[in-house]
Design goal:
Radius of gyration: 27 Å
Structural class: alpha+beta
Strand order of the largest sheet: 3-4-5
Number of helices: 5
Shape: extended
Order of helices and strands: EEEHEEHHHH
Largest sheet: 3 strands, antiparallel
Number of domains: 2
Oligomer: single chain
């Protein structure tokens, strides 16, 4: 299956979806909670979808993802969400470097929360703007030099405030 075009061509792998019942403390606690408590549950753990990637030319699977999405979820959607890491890393880098997520130097939790909230709101605005097809593109900087300003404008700016 191909999930996107990369710089060197199509990115493809083989994928399989298996139905599993995960074991461990968290799935057991979730089953007990959804069943109405320890004594009322039926003892059957909930099923989950396990997405397995097997890259071409490899001897064994290379990646695994556990999902609690419905069993009717198409494999293409599962693969798309599993491979969304590139978009997430790009957004985090934009939050950190472009919007100043890492510039907070305060000491209190409310101040940190305020800063992160504003940065997140700015990220949401930029994302919506990027996805809006009707939004105007930002003006591009001219490569031509600016014309010289007239002498009277320059002289007037040196004269100081006028009354």
């Amino acid at each position: 299956m191909t999930w996107r075009q990369g710089s060197k061509g199509a990115m493809t792998s083989w994928f399989a979806v298996l139905t599993v019942r995960p074991a461990g403390k968290q799935p057991l606690a979730a089953a007990q909670e959804s069943g109405g408590g320890r004594r009322r549950r039926d003892g059957i753990l909930p099923t989950r979808a396990l997405l397995v990637e097997w890259a071409q030319g490899r001897d064994a699977p290379t990646d695994y993802w556990m999902s609690n999405l419905p069993a009717t979820t198409p494999v293409a959607d599962l693969v798309g969400w599993a491979k969304m890491r590139r978009r997430i890393e790009h957004d985090y880098r934009e939050l950190k470097h472009g919007l100043g997520l890492d510039h907070f130097e305060g000491r209190t939790w409310p101040d940190r929360h305020h800063h992160v909230t504003l940065v997140t709101a700015a990220q949401a605005f930029l994302t919506l703007r990027r996805l809006d097809q009707k939004a105007e593109a930002p003006a591009r900087a001219s490569t031509r030099p600016s014309p010289p300003r007239p002498a009277e404008v320059l002289e007037g700016s040196r004269a100081g405030p006028t009354r």
